C-alpha cells in the first residue's frame, strides 16, 4: 500500500488522470489536492465514508461541477468538461447514486432521451437493448414504464443507458446500496465484463466486501483528501479501513464495525450485560392485519401482523420499497391503513393523528429525516421541541428562553454539536441532525414504543455508534423498539428478532442470528423458508 | 331548442373556446416542461393590443397578427429569464407581468385612440371549410370560423405529434418530470424550458390576436378579463394532456356562450351569473380534482444542478 | 445567546457614510421603486407631457391639501390590511392573490348589514361595527373556501383565490344589478345599478369630525391590527406553527401541528383582513356599493405584501407609498392629462424587478 504522497507505479498510460484537484462549496472544501489515475481495463474503487467527497469527485469527472484548482487529463489531453454533455461526448458515462429516470416514461424513451434527434426510432432502440441484455446479462422489458419497475430493474435501466453509449470510462456512484445480494453479484459481474473489454470502471463504495471481491486498485478518501491508495486491496483491507475512518478498528462499536463489513457479524442484541433482568413478556405494540393500498389500488402492505414486547428490539428487514415506508408512515399516523388495527397496550392507535400517537407514547424516527423528521429552516431548539411546543407557551406566547435552555440541556445529553440551540437546523451535519431527531423522540415523557426507520443512513461511524447506544438504552428501560432497516448486518447485530418484508408481506421471521444470514437473504429475495 | 339555435350555440361555443384552446395548449407544453406562466393573461393582452394597433395602422389584419406575435416574444422572453435564469417565483413574476401589461396597454391605448374611441379595426377573415361547411343547417353556423381557429387546430395536432413521436417531445416531458435526467443526458434543461415558454408566448399571442382582430374587431382596455387564468385552469382540469385541455377549453367556451344563448331563448338568468359561470366552473373543475400526482413533478420549480 | 431571526445574523451589512446599516432586503425594494419611478417619469416625457407639470399635479394630489392627505391615508389602510393578510398567509407558504374578491364579498356583506340589518339605531357604535364584523366573516369564509379546496383536493391556492376573485367581483355586480338583492329601488329606468347610500350611523366616524380632513377610524384600527399581526408572527406559538407548516408541512404534521387547521386559519385570516378592507372602503369612503367597487385595491395590497418581504413595517411603508401614488395618479390624470394607468405600470415594474432580484438578495444575505 502506498500512502498518498508516495509515487504511484506506472502500469499503463492512464485513461484519466486527476492532479491536485480542489473543489469548494462556499466555505466548505469538499475536495482538496486530490490526485489519482484511472487506467484502461481496471476496476478502480473509491472508498470513503459519507461526506468524504466521493460523489463530488464523480461529479467533477462527469462535468456536473467544475474544479476550483488542479487539472484533469483524459486520453492524454487536457480535460475541462463544461457539462455532462461534454463528458458523454468524450465517452464517459455515469450511474448516479440517485436514479435520474423519468417515472412515467418507458425504458426505451428514457434510454433515447438526449441520444437521438428528430423522430424517435423506438423499435431500433429496443433491439439494441435486447442485444445488451444478452451481452451483459441485463434483461429488461424495453416498453415497460419506469414507475412499474423494481429498484433493481431501475438500476439496470441506468446501466444500459450508459452502456448503450459504449463508454470508455464507466463511473458507478454507490450502486449497490439499494440492491439485493443476488443483484449485487450480478452488478459486479457487469463491472467485470466491462473492464475485461478494455474499458475502465470507477466504482464508488463504502462496502469492503465489494472491494475484496472486485477491485484492482483502491483510492481512499477522507475529509476530501486522498489518504491511501492500494494496488493489492484484497490483501490490505484492514489498513484501508483504518485510513478511511482514521481510527483504531478495535475500539469501534460492534454494530458500527459490523455495518462496515469490518468484522463478522456477531449478535449482541440488548441486555447482554445484565441478562438476569426478569423477562416477563409485556406486549407493547400490536399490529394486526395491517394493509395499505395506494391511490391506484396497488397493495403496498399486505396483512402485516406483528407484536413487539417491552424491552424487545424487532428488526424489519427487506430491500427498500417492499412496504417499509408504508409501514412506518402508518405507524407514524401519516397514512391511513386500508385495513387492520394498531394497538399500544390497550390504546387503539389505528388511523389516529400524529399528535395522538405521540401523546400515547410512540416515538418515530422517520426514514426521511429531511422530509418528515425536521424543519430545516428553523432552529435546533424549535426542532427539538416541535412536538411539545405547548409546554413552552404562556397565553399563546412562546417562552423562547425556556425553550432554548431546555434544548441546550438535551443537546448536551445527546451530544448534539451545533453553534447553539438557536443554530439553524440545516447548518448541522447529518449525524447531529439525526441525534437531534432521536433526542426529540426518545425523550417523550411516556415513551413506550420507538419506531426507528433507517436510523443510521448516511451517518459516519461515530454517529452510528451513538444512535445505537441511545436505542439500546431505551430498550433497557423497557421501551419496545421496532427497527426498520435495509442493512441486514445492522439488524443482525442489534435486533432480537427479525421479520422480513417482501412486496408488502411478511416472508418469514427468525431470531437475529448471524448464521441465518443466507436464509434471511433468500427471504428478502422473495423465497419463503 | 331548435336545431338552428343549437348550431349557433355550438358555433359560438367553439368561437369563445378558441382563445382558451390556443393559449391553453401553449401553456400545457410549458407546464409539461416545468414552467408555470401566470403571465399568459398578460401575453394575450399584449397580443390583443399589438394586433389591433398593427391591423388598424397598416389596414392589413395579417400584418396585425404578425405584429401581435412579434410583440409578445419579448414578454415571453422576460418570463423565461425570470423563471429560469433568475429563478424568480414564477407566480409572482407572472402576476407582475400581468399588472405591467395591463397598465402599459391601457396607457398606450389611450395615447393612440383616446379615452372613449371604438375604432373599427380590420379583422381576420372567416373561412368555411369544404364538406363540413356544406352540411345543411349546422354547416355555416358551426364551421364558418376565423381561419386562425383552423390554423390553431393544425398547430395543436402538430404539437401532439411532436410530444409523442420526437426527441424534443420526450425531452420536454422529462424536463418537467425529472430535469436531472435531462441534464445528465447532456441536454440543457434551461434551453428546453426557454423554448417552451417562448412557444407558450407564441400560442398566447395567437390567442390574444384572435380576441381583438379575430372575434370582435376592436380592442378594449383589459379585454382578456381573466381568459389567461381560465386557460391555466383548463390545463389543470385537462390533467396536462392535450385532449383534456381541449375538452376543458370547449367546456369553458360553452359556459361563456350561454351568456348570449340563454337570453335568446328567453330564459332569464342574471347576466352577472352567466359571466361568472366559466370562472365558477373552472373553480369547481380544479377543486374537484383530487391530488397533485398528475402535475409535472417539478412544475413551478426553477432547475438547479 | 444566539437569536433565531429569520435573516442569518451574519447577513452582509452595507454601512453607508451616514452610519446607516442597509440590508439588501431593504435596499433592493427601495432601488426597485426608484427604478420604476424613473421609468414612470420617462413615460410621462414620452407621451409629451411636461414632467414638471405632471410632478406638480402629482404632489398636489398627494400632499396638496389636508383632504388629499387624509384620502391617501384612508386608501393606504385598505392596502395595508390586504397586505397584512398576504404576509400572514405567506408565513405558511401560502400565496393569497384573492384580495380583490375578499374586498368584494366584504363590501357586499357590509352593505347588506348596513342597509337591511336594522343596525342604524344601535348604541355604542354597533351601527358601524356590525357591518364591519359581517365583512370580516364574509371575507374569512371566502378565504377559507380556497383553504378547504387546497386541503381537500390539493388545489393550488393561487389559482383558486384568483378564480374566487373573479367570482367575487361578479357576485358584487349581480348584487347591485338585481333589485331583489342590493340594488336600490327602481324609481325609473335610469336608476343606476348601485345600492342605496348606507345610513349615516353606519359610516365610519371621522377622527376629527371635520370633512375637509376625512381621516376615519380605519387608521387606528389598522395600526392596532399591524401590531397584532406583527406580534402574532414573531412572538407567539401560532406564528411559529405557521412558519413550521410553511417550511415543511409534512414534518410539522408529524410533530402534531395540523396542516389542515393551519392552512384554513392562515387563509381565513387573510380573507378576514381583506373583508375588513372592503368594509373600510364602503363605510369610510364610497358609502354605496356599485360595479367596480374593489377598484383593483386588492392587487395593490397584494403588491404591498410582496414588496414587504414578509415584514409588517414593510407592508405599511409600501401601502403608504401606493396610497399616495394612487392619489397623485388621479390628480395627474385630471390636471396634467397623464392616464392613471401609469401608476399600474410602475407597480408592475416594481413586482417584476423584485421577483427578479430575489436570487441576488438571497446570495447577498448568505455571504
Describe this structure in words.
- The complex is a heterotrimer of chains A (529), B (305) and C (367).
- With 529 residues, chain A is an alpha/beta fold.
- In chain A, helix 15 (430-442) packs parallel to helix 16 (461-476).
- Chain B has a domain at 21-223.
- In chain B, 72% of the residues lie in helices and 1% in strands.
- In chain B, helix 1 runs antiparallel to helix 9, helix 2 (40-58) packs across helix 10 (227-237) and helix 6 crosses helix 7 (167-177).
- Chain B is globular and about 60 Å long.
- The termini of chain B are far apart.
- The mean pLDDT of chain B is 90.
- The longest helix of chain C is centred in the middle third of the chain and has 28 residues, at 126-153.
- Chain C has helices at residues 24-46, 51-63, 66-91, 99-116, 126-153, 157-177, 218-235, 237-247, 249-254, 259-286, 297-307, 312-336, 341-366, and strands at 14-15, 21-22.
- In chain C, helix 2 crosses helix 12 and helix 3 crosses helix 8.
- Chain C has a two-stranded antiparallel ribbon.
- Chains in contact: A-B, A-C, B-C.
- At the A-C interface, helix 11, helix 12 and strand 19 of A face helix 8 and helix 9 of C.
Amino acid at each position: 500500500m502506498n500512502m498518498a504522497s508516495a509515487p504511484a507505479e506506472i502500469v499503463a498510460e492512464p485513461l484519466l488522470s486527476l492532479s491536485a484537484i480542489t473543489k469548494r462549496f462556499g466555505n466548505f472544501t469538499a475536495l482538496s489536492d486530490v490526485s489519482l489515475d484511472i487506467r484502461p481495463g481496471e476496476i478502480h474503487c473509491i472508498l470513503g465514508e459519507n461526506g468524504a467527497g466521493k460523489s463530488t469527485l464523480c461529479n467533477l469527472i462527469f462535468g456536473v461541477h467544475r474544479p476550483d484548482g488542479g487539472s484533469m487529463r483524459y486520453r492524454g489531453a487536457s480535460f475541462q468538461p463544461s457539462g455532462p454533455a461534454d463528458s458523454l461526448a468524450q465517452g464517459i458515462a455515469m450511474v448516479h447514486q440517485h436514479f435520474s429516470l423519468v417515472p412515467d416514461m418507458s425504458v426505451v424513451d428514457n434510454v433515447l432521451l438526449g441520444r437521438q434527434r428528430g423522430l424517435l426510432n423506438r423499435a431500433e432502440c429496443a433491439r439494441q437493448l435486447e442485444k445488451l441484455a444478452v451481452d451483459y446479462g441485463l434483461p429488461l422489458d424495453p416498453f415497460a414504464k419506469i414507475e412499474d419497475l423494481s429498484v433493481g430493474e431501475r438500476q439496470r435501466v441506468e446501466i444500459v443507458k450508459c452502456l448503450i453509449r459504449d463508454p470508455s470510462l464507466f463511473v458507478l456512484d454507490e450502486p449497490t446500496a439499494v440492491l439485493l445480494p443476488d443483484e449485487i453479484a450480478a452488478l459486479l459481474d457487469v463491472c467485470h465484463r466491462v473492464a475485461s473489454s478494455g474499458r475502465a470502471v470507477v466504482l464508488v463504495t463504502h462496502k469492503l466486501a465489494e472491494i475484496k471481491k472486485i477491485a484492482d486498485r483502491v483510492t481512499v478518501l477522507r475529509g476530501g483528501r486522498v489518504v491511501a491508495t492500494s494496488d493489492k486491496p484484497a490483501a490490505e483491507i484492514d489498513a484501508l479501513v483504518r485510513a478511511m475512518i482514521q481510527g483504531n478498528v478495535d475500539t469501534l462499536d460492534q454494530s458500527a464495525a459490523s455495518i462496515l463489513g469490518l468484522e463478522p457479524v456477531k449478535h449482541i442484541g440488548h441486555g447482554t450485560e445484565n441478562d438476569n433482568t426478569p423477562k416477563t413478556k409485556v406486549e407493547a405494540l400490536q399490529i394486526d392485519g395491517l394493509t395499505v393500498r395506494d391511490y391506484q389500488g396497488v397493495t403496498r402492505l399486505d396483512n402485516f401482523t406483528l407484536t413487539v414486547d417491552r424491552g424487545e428490539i424487532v428488526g424489519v428487514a427487506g430491500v427498500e420499497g417492499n412496504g417499509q415506508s408504508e409501514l412506518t408512515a402508518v405507524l407514524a399516523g401519516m397514512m391511513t391503513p386500508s385495513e387492520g388495527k394498531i394497538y399500544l397496550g390497550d390504546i387503539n392507535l389505528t388511523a389516529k393523528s400524529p399528535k395522538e400517537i405521540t401523546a400515547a407514547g410512540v416515538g418515530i424516527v422517520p426514514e426521511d429525516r429531511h422530509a418528515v423528521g425536521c424543519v430545516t429552516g428553523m432552529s435546533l431548539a424549535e426542532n427539538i421541541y416541535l412536538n411539545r411546543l405547548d409546554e413552552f407557551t404562556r397565553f399563546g406566547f412562546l417562552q423562547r428562553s425556556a425553550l432554548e435552555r431546555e434544548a441546550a440541556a438535551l443537546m448536551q445529553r445527546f451530544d448534539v454539536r451545533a453553534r447553539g440551540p438557536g443554530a439553524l437546523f440545516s447548518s448541522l451535519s447529518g449525524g447531529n441532525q439525526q441525534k437531534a431527531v432521536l433526542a426529540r423522540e426518545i425523550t417523550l415523557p411516556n415513551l413506550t414504543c420507538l419506531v426507528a426507520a433507517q436510523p443510521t443512513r448516511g451517518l459516519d461511524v461515530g454517529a452510528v455508534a451513538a444512535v445505537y447506544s441511545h436505542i439500546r438504552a431505551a430498550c433497557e428501560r423497557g421501551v419496545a423498539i421496532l427497527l426498520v432497516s435495509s442493512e441486514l448486518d445492522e439488524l443482525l447485530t442489534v435486533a432480537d428478532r427479525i421479520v422480513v418484508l417482501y412486496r408488502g408481506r411478511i416472508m418469514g421471521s427468525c431470531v437475529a442470528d448471524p448464521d441465518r444470514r443466507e436464509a434471511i437473504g433468500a427471504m428478502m429475495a422473495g423465497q419463503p423458508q | 331548442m331548435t336545431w338552428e339555435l343549437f348550431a349557433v350555440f355550438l358555433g359560438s361555443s367553439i368561437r369563445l373556446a378558441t382563445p382558451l384552446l390556443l393559449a391553453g395548449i401553449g401553456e400545457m407544453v410549458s407546464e409539461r416542461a416545468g414552467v408555470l406562466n401566470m403571465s399568459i393573461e398578460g401575453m394575450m393582452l399584449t397580443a390583443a393590443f399589438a394586433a389591433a394597433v398593427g391591423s388598424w395602422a397598416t389596414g392589413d389584419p395579417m400584418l396585425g397578427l404578425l405584429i401581435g406575435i412579434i410583440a409578445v416574444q419579448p414578454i415571453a422572453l422576460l418570463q423565461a429569464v425570470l423563471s429560469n435564469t433568475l429563478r424568480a417565483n414564477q407566480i409572482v413574476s407572472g402576476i407582475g407581468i400581468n399588472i405591467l401589461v395591463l397598465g402599459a396597454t391601457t396607457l398606450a391605448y389611450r395615447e393612440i385612440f383616446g379615452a372613449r374611441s371604438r375604432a373599427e379595426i380590420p379583422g381576420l377573415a372567416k373561412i368555411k371549410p369544404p364538406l363540413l361547411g356544406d352540411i345543411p343547417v349546422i354547416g355555416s353556423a358551426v364551421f364558418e370560423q376565423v381561419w386562425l381557429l383552423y390554423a390553431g387546430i393544425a398547430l395543436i395536432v402538430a404539437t401532439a405529434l411532436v410530444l409523442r413521436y420526437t426527441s424534443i417531445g420526450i425531452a420536454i416531458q422529462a424536463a418537467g418530470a425529472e430535469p436531472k435526467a435531462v441534464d445528465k443526458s447532456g441536454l440543457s434543461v434551461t434551453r428546453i424550458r426557454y423554448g417552451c415558454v417562448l412557444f407558450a408566448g407564441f400560442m398566447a399571442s395567437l390567442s390574444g390576436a384572435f380576441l381583438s382582430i379575430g372575434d370582435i374587431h376592436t380592442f378594449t382596455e383589459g379585454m382578456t378579463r381573466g381568459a389567461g387564468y381560465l386557460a391555466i385552469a383548463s390545463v389543470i382540469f385537462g390533467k396536462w394532456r392535450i385532449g383534456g385541455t381541449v375538452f376543458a377549453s370547449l367546456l369553458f367556451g360553452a359556459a361563456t356562450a350561454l351568456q348570449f344563448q340563454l337570453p335568446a331563448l328567453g330564459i332569464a338568468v342574471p347576466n352577472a351569473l352567466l359571466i361568472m359561470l366559466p370562472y365558477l366552473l373552472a373553480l369547481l373543475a380544479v377543486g374537484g380534482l383530487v391530488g397533485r400526482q398528475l402535475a409535472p413533478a417539478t412544475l413551478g420549480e426553477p432547475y438547479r444542478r | 445567546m444566539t437569536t433565531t431571526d429569520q435573516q442569518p445574523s451574519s447577513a452582509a451589512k452595507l454601512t453607508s457614510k451616514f452610519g446607516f446599516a442597509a440590508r439588501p432586503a431593504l435596499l433592493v425594494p427601495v432601488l426597485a421603486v426608484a427604478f420604476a419611478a424613473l421609468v414612470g417619469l420617462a413615460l410621462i416625457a414620452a407621451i409629451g407631457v411636461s414632467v414638471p407639470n405632471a410632478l406638480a399635479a402629482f404632489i398636489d394630489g398627494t400632499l396638496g391639501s389636508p383632504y388629499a392627505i387624509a384620502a391617501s391615508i384612508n386608501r393606504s389602510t385598505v392596502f395595508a390590511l390586504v397586505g397584512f393578510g398576504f404576509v400572514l398567509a405567506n408565513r405558511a407558504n401560502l400565496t393569497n392573490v384573492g384580495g380583490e374578491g375578499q374586498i368584494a364579498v366584504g363590501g357586499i356583506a357590509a352593505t347588506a348589514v348596513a342597509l337591511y340589518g336594522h343596525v342604524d339605531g344601535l348604541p355604542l357604535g354597533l351601527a358601524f361595527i356590525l357591518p364591519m364584523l359581517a365583512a370580516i366573516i364574509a371575507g374569512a369564509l371566502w378565504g377559507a373556501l380556497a383553504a378547504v379546496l387546497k386541503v381537500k383536493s390539493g388545489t393550488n391556492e393561487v389559482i383558486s383565490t384568483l378564480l374566487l376573485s373573479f367570482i367575487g367581483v361578479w357576485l358584487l355586480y349581480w348584487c347591485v344589478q338585481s333589485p331583489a338583492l342590493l340594488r336600490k329601488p327602481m324609481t325609473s329606468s335610469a336608476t343606476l345599478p348601485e345600492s342605496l347610500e348606507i345610513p349615516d350611523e353606519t359610516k365610519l366616524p371621522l377622527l376629527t369630525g371635520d370633512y375637509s380632513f376625512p381621516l376615519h377610524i380605519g387608521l387606528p384600527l389598522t395600526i392596532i391590527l399591524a401590531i397584532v399581526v406583527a406580534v402574532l408572527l414573531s412572538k407567539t406559538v401560532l406564528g411559529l406553527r405557521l412558519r413550521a407548516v410553511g417550511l415543511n408541512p409534512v414534518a410539522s404534521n408529524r410533530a402534531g401541528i395540523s396542516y389542515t387547521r393551519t392552512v384554513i386559519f392562515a387563509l381565513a385570516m387573510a380573507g378576514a383582513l381583506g373583508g375588513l378592507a372592503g368594509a373600510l372602503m364602503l363605510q369610510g369612503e364610497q358609502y354605496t356599493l356599485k360595479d367596480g367597487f374593489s377598484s383593483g385595491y386588492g392587487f395593490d395590497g397584494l403588491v404591498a405584501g410582496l414588496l414587504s418581504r414578509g415584514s409588517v413595517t414593510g407592508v405599511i411603508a409600501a401601502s403608504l407609498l401606493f396610497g399616495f401614488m394612487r392619489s397623485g395618479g388621479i390628480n395627474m390624470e385630471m390636471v396634467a392629462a397623464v392616464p392613471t394607468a401609469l401608476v399600474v405600470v410602475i407597480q408592475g415594474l416594481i413586482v417584476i424587478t423584485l421577483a427578479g432580484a430575489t436570487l441576488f438578495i438571497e446570495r447577498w444575505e448568505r455571504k
